[in-house]
Amino acid sequence: MKKHILIVGGGFAGINLIKSLKNDKRFKITLVDKNNYHFFPPLIYQVATSFIEASNISYPFRKLFSDNKNVKFHMGSLVKVIPEDKTIETDTGSLSYDYLVLAMGTESNFFGMENVRKCALPMKSIEEALYLRNHILLTLEEAARNKDINEAEKLQNIVIAGGGPTGVELAGMLAEMGRYIAKKEYPEIKLSFSSIYLIDALPTLLSPMSRLAQETAYEKLKELGVKILLNVSVKDYVDSKVILSDGKSIETETLIWTSGVIGREVHGLPEESTGKGRRLMVDAYNKVQGTANIYALGDLCLMISEEKYPKGHLQLAQVAIQQGKNMAANFQRIEDGKVLEPFRYNDKGSMAIISKYNAVVDLPKHSFKGFIAWLTWLFIHIIPLVGFGNKIQLAIDWFRLFITNNPSIRLILFPKRNTGNGQ
Ligand SMILES: Cc1cc2nc3c(=O)[nH]c(=O)nc-3n(C[C@H](O)[C@H](O)[C@H](O)COP(=O)(O)OP(=O)(O)OC[C@H]3O[C@@H](n4cnc5c(N)ncnc54)[C@H](O)[C@@H]3O)c2cc1C
Questions:
Q1: Which of 91, 250, 359, 395 has a beta carbon 3.0–4.6 Å from 374's, enabling a disulfide?
Q2: Mutate to test the pocket of ligand 1, among 102, 104, 170, 302 (most ligand atoms within 8 A of CB)
Q3: Domain 114-259's class?
Q4: By three-state DSSP, how is residue 22 classified?
């Protein structure tokens, strides 16, 4: 009897688990995902800023595994786990398992601020990135039409909450969009995104990175005209005003939220399974605490057993990829009757792009910045993209775009059905 492994979530963790097991005939694998495609989160800020197409960084699951007879895809969103029946319920049907692997990642955390949740613009998925792209382009059109200078200024204010890599990368790209594109194509607008605010509650940008990376990001973004506010947090967002913890406020129609994440909610597991940040508590083999045959991987899980990471691993792509691979090897060890290997994270470093030709790279023993760091960033972000065609297409697009400074995909598209009433 083949063992049925049910994997919920086809992100870095889920995909790498499947890739390592897809040729092992002892397993039958079903991937469940609410989308029909895998995507690459580190580059969605380039989709949001109209720099690249969503299809550059996404790939359909069915195509990805079309040559693997033991891998099936089920499109649906997890509703709950029923451990006693070894089944899960999704919004499109129930499925049973021998082993269940939960790898659904995280969602934006608004820290209980209801107005921020309702009105801020998160950027964690392709849909959110496309929504943000439309919002930015529509706001520019509105600013171009608006004769009232104060209103036009408010429309061009952009507030980014969160000074981690995503906030830094987004701020740099928006500043360059204002400099190279908005100035040329929107002659009615005088300011061209002159007021981009980047806000963080901590005393530094890129807090988990090296001092070199933090200072370089700060200086380069300042040079690009980004207004950086540190030691300040967002407290509310009312009547188009972002209220800050120091009592000040900023008028804007665009509050972009890159400030924090929380694990996706999983119903049906015992209370003891969930830990800090709503992450699922796992042992050194990624087995969820208080369950049998249920595992969690990647951003969704919290493993505190590794000595070097007593508070758990950072929620990074490499952690998810390595956990997916280790899990696959452990499933094979179970079948072979061998001793399981605990997960050990191999830290390969981190990096962030700040602006054109400028990035910062932290390797485990060495940090560097500038053009070489920028080339390294481009290379490292192409390698893990799924699909050879995507890698080539993105390399060509980047080459053309960085030289011309002028992507041509600034289309405001709202798919809708023609209702036949002439609208
Ligand atoms: C904007 C952004 C930029 C980032 N930049 C970097 C970076 O530069 N470097 C880095 O190392 N890390 C970066 N990260 C973090 C990195 O993307 C994550 O650590 C990594 O994606 C985690 O992988 P995962 O497989 O655990 O989850 P994810 O990649 O988030 O995948 C989760 C999958 O689960 C699916 N799913 C979610 N809910 C359900 C449900 N209810 N039912 C079914 N399916 C569901 C989703 O559709 C998705 O396919 C970034 C993240 C974001 C959002």
A1: 359
A2: 104
A3: alpha beta
A4: coil
Largest CA distance in the chain: 74
Rounded-to-integer distance, Cα 329 and Cα 27, Å: 12
**Where do the H-state alpha helices sit in 264-384?**
317-336, 371-382
**Rounded to 5 degrees, what are φ and ψ at 284?**
-65, -10
288: helix, strand or coil: strand
Looking at residue 191, its pLDDT comes to 62
The domain ranges of the chain are 3-34+76-108+261-336, 114-259
CA 179–ligand 1 middle distance (angstroms): 31
* Topology (CATH) of 3-34+76-108+261-336: FAD/NAD(P)-binding domain (3.50.50)
Contact 16, 321 (CB under 8 A): yes
The residue type of 369 is: K
264 lines ligand 1 (CB under 6 A): yes
Which ranges of 337-387 does DSSP label H, i.e. alpha helix?
Answer: 371-382
126 Cβ closer than 6 Å to some ligand 1 atom: no
CA distances to 100, 222, 295, 366 from 249, rounded to whole Å, are 47, 20, 44, 40
**Ligand 1 binding pocket includes 129 (Cβ within 6 Å):** no
pLDDT digits (tens, 9 = 90+) for 134-191: 999 999 999 889 888 788 888 889 999 999 999 999 999 999 888 888 878 888 887 6
